[in-house]
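The instructor's notes for this session suggest beginning with a concrete chain rather than abstract definitions. Hand out the sequence below and ask the class to guess, before any prediction is shown, which regions might be ordered.
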Amino acid sequence: MKRKILTAGAALAGLGLITGILVYFFLFNKPHTDYSKAEADFEMKAIAVFEEFRTNPELASGKYNGKVLSLTGELTAVEQPDSLTIAVFSYEEGMFGSEGVRFTILTEHAGSVIAVAPGSTVTLKGLCTGYNETDVIMEHCSLVK
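After discussion, reveal the predicted structure:
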């Protein structure tokens, strides 16, 4: 009887070990999404997204957050705080500065965005992560054209 209990315990421990290894390799070791190659869920003018978030943030959040957006607009500025590159489409001047859409650019695409002259019309694609009451925030972005 003791032998059966020990065998069953060893089998369960082995099964648990194998399950743990599989979870590690297939879940935690999963490659990250390449947003520069991802298909856009929405392709539109950046001003339209900004206006939707400004007028009804809850509805726009449900519609766009977590989605890949391809947004076209006039590049107002490119900021480089620390190692980040942030492209800005400004539409209004608020209490704390310009308001619009801010794109955090992927490192490998930063050079191509920096080379674009302010005032040019460009299309940037990335993951929409929300609205902070002044700007629509886009992350993992790349220059489409």
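Then share the key points. The longest strand covers residues 121-131. The chain has a mean pLDDT of 86.
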